[in-house]
Amino acid sequence: xxxxxxxIGLLLIVLMMPFVQPGAAHSxxxxxxLELDGSTLASEVPPYLxxxxxxxxxxxxxxxxxxxxxxxxxSTKTVTVTKGGDELKLTSGKSSAQVNGASVALDSSVLIxxxxxxxPIRFVAEQLGLQVVxxxxxxxxxxxxxxxxxxxxxxxxxxxxxxxxxxSPTVPTIPGTGKAMKGVWISTxxxxxxxxxxxxxxxxxxxxxxxxxxxxxxAVGFNAVFVQVRPSGDSLYPSALVPWSKVLSGTQGKxxxxxxxxxxxxxxxxxxxxxxxxxxxxxxxxxxxxSQLASSHIVKAHPDWVVQMSSKADNKYYINPGIPEAxxxxxxxxxxxxxxxDIDGVHLDDYFYPSSSFPDDxxxxxxxxxxxxxxxxxxxxxxxxxxxxxGAQIHAVKPAVSYGISPFGVWRNSSKDSTxxxxxxxVSAYDDMYADVRMWIQQGWVDYVAPQIYWSxxxxxxxxxxxxxxxxxxxxxxGVKLYIGQAAYKVGAADQSxxxxxxxxxxxxxxxxxxxxxxxxxxxxxxxxxxxxxxxDLTSLLTFYFKS
Length: 548
Description:
Layout: H1 6-14, E1 33-36, E2 39-40, E3 48-49, E4 55-58, H2 59-65, E5 69-73, E6 78-83, E7 86-91, E8 96-99, E9 102-105, E10 111-113, E11 116-120, H3 121-127, E12 131-135, E13 140-144, E14 181-186, H4 203-220, E15 224-230, H5 246-249, H6 260-270, E16 274-279, H7 298-301, E17 306-308, E18 317-319, H8 324-340, E19 345-348, H9 361-366, H10 375-397, E20 402-405, H11 429-432, H12 437-443, E21 448-449, H13 464-475, E22 481-486, H14 504-513, E23 519-524, H15 527-531, H16 538-547
Parallel strand pairs: 1-13, 14-15, 14-23, 15-16, 16-19, 19-20, 20-21, 21-22, 22-23
Antiparallel strand pairs: 1-2, 3-4, 4-11, 5-6, 6-7, 7-8, 8-9, 10-11, 12-13, 17-18
Signal peptide: 1-27
Protein name: Glycosyl hydrolase-like 10 domain-containing protein
Domain Copper amine oxidase-like N-terminal: 36-142
């Protein structure tokens, strides 16, 4: 859920960490092979990994191998790639590209090597609608059209560090599936996982992309998807309350010509997988620009219900949790989906109060009917009321729909509360996001919690195993299920420390989860980090683990 309020907390924690240089020496790596649908692609200059772990290839691979039109402008140092109605413009030295006229962030820009123009193959391929799979062990990049990617073969059993010896419990089950939760988040905001930016306004392409993504997730062993259906006060379904999301067409409020949510649910259920509708509760926008918002968006329709943050790092708009009508508007939006669609669950992330300063003094004075003495306690009461009311109204409509929340992974540090976790996190759910998850569990207001425990087994500031221990004790005997949110996005990332440079970190965490019957599965963030980026051969490791 990575452009979310938890980013601030993660950054604060990362500042406590010693800097660790990523371990690979790219210049010494073996030569990289490219394949398109199983056939080797010739390259006049060998592809290579740059310092950012981005694979660079010559333009010849794009023009001859991918059969795309290519034009290089020497004066502007810009390459234009065209194929099937899509146009990409990448300029040397720029950190963003133009994709069908829209600006999209780049990991690495165009450069010249051995007299050849080199471009980032993953970015170009994905924008042209191809799926990219990286096999690190074989130094092989496989590109696939929107046909189904071949099944992953079972790898040799990996050698793993020893996990503490604890009697194995009976594997818990999810009602209706007979399986432990093996979930994955699918982010739609910023077109991260689905749909691709290049599919804007192309319903058939969006459908193909989603089914291809589902097929790959199912092949790995996942049995549930948590799809972001309300990313920024908008929707991926026809709504009478909020506008269409811009991720579908490039323009907020524009009808994509079909019902994406109905399509996704149908395709997910065809594969025997669960579909959970993921809502960002109090986020209204992803930035401070309101010029592109539809007239029905809450920022324009109810400006008195929103607050704009003033910092450069966070100037987006938030729906004000202190206003009862604003809270009810979110509940109404969720209920519209519960009533209209055959979803398996409603899922909220940790977008409650932002962990930075929130200007709501006037709201506190105007809406403090209970006379709560401190702003902090008043804010927690607002969120408690929202969580309780939403759950009650969901279950009144459809009792079988699962209702759960994925809070920031640290409820409170023990330095603030002796009953908190043995951690030293820079922020906490209780103190900074005003989310009293303990109360939600104890009162039975939620069916499950899925704390985002996005740290390693060796990160002493907030160790994975210590946090799992803490959450297990919180749910024990309550009837509230516990799933663990895991950080697949960190595996192999250049900005992460050594323990994250192997997919084995995730496998070891899964093995630790197995030591508790209270842990009834996990949810991984996020889909493309597993199926497309596939760092440290994570796809094969998970396939082997889930099926063993």
